[in-house]
Every structure is written in C-alpha cells, then in structure tokens.
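Readers of this paper often ask what the protein records in our data store actually look like. Such a record has a labelled line for the sequence and another for the backbone structure tokens. The tokens are whole numbers drawn from a learned vocabulary of local backbone shapes. We quote a single record here, exactly as it is kept in our systems:
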Amino acid sequence: MVNENGHGHTIVNPDIRAVHDSMLDGLGQLASYFGFSKVMGQLYGTLMLSHEPLSLDDMTERLDISKASVSMNIRTLEHLGMVRQAWVRGKGDRRKYYEAVTDYWQIISDLLNGREMRDVQRAIQVMRENSDKLIAAMPDMSGSEQDVAKVYVHRIAQLQTLFQFAQLMISTILEQVEAIDLDDDADLPT
C-alpha cells in the first residue's frame, strides 16, 4: 500500500508496517462510512502519521494514486479543517506542503456543527413543510385521500420527532466537548 513513513524511509519493521497499513485502511473505510471518499481518509492518515509536512507529489507517490485525486481530496480536507498548508524551511521549491490537524475533538465538533447539524435541520424543515402542505390540502380531499394524508402526517410527525432528538443529541455532544479539558492527557500512555 504505502512505501514510506513520515520520515522518508522505507518501513522495515513488520509491526510498524502492519499498524501503518491498518491505520490507512481503517481511516479510508471510516471516511467512506461517513460519506467521504476512501482516498480522503487515506490522505488524512498519511499526513497524520508523517512527522513532517508532505507535498502533493509525496502523497501521490506514497498512495500510488493520481495527482488530480490527491489535489481534489486535499482541498476538501483543507476546507473541512482537517489539514492545513505548512511552510517547510529549507525547501527551495514552489510546491505546497500540507500537514494534518491533530485536534481531533475540534475536527469532530466542526463536522457535527457544520454538515451534520445542517442536514438534520434541513430534514426537519422539509418534513414540517410537507406536513403543513398536506394539512392545508386535506379539506379539498375525498374521505379516502384524507385517510392516506392523515397517515402521512402522523408518520412524518414521528420521523420529525426522531430528527429533533438527533438534533438534541448533536447539540448535547457539542456542549459536552466544549466543557471537557481536552488538553489533559494525563490518562494517555507515554
């Protein structure tokens, strides 16, 4: 899969190689699960496991994928706040270098507060509009059509309650993350 670690050397140790490959595969699968491309997860993993910033060419070579794919996915990761451009001292070339943002709690908070919360709010709005539309149209419906519309309104209301609960859960998680001292790594192994 990947030929080099972040230090520019071939990974020889089989345990380090296995963990490295497993992390990139796992992050690729995780990205895919959340609706992002597998490549995006692998790129993030490549940067995360590198001790130094990498250029697009470095990432293209390490993952054996096209530079266009690397460029497009890095822009998305940058937009999501998961990677950032980095200045590399002593490099005389004009290439851009990137590094992973490793404040994982901030990344999760940004994703939940951005994309997920917007999607949930939009779903609630669509359900409300659809329910209101049916309720307004019911007086002009036949008896059997009103029965169908009542089922729709009832089921939409149930689903809307579920989405409002999801909205509450996301808000609660975000509030709790803000209250936690995420810099306290006393429980982490050294």
